[in-house]
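A quick aside before the break. I want you to see a complete sequence-to-structure record at least once, exactly as it would be stored in a machine-readable document. Don't worry about memorizing anything.
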Amino acid sequence: MFVRTGPCAWDDVPTRQAVAARRRPHLALCGVTSERVVLHTALDAPAAGYEVTVLLDACGGLSARTEQAAFRQVEAAGGV
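That is the input. The structure line, written in tokens, reads:
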């Protein structure tokens, strides 16, 4: 588990380094405020070569509408 320091966990250098050190090509993401934290991390990680799966049942959104919109953005970018 990693604690974010901003709206995107991928922006946090220690988090990014810890993930890279594990040498796993696939990330399973979850978190609170799916529309910010999960969304931005899920959109940025593939640019670094990672496959992303969002664990929907372990996420929380501000509303069902905005959370579903965030998940659609992740899917459109190639995430699952």
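Two observations worth writing down. The longest helix spans residues 64-76. The mean pLDDT is 88. We'll return to this after the break.
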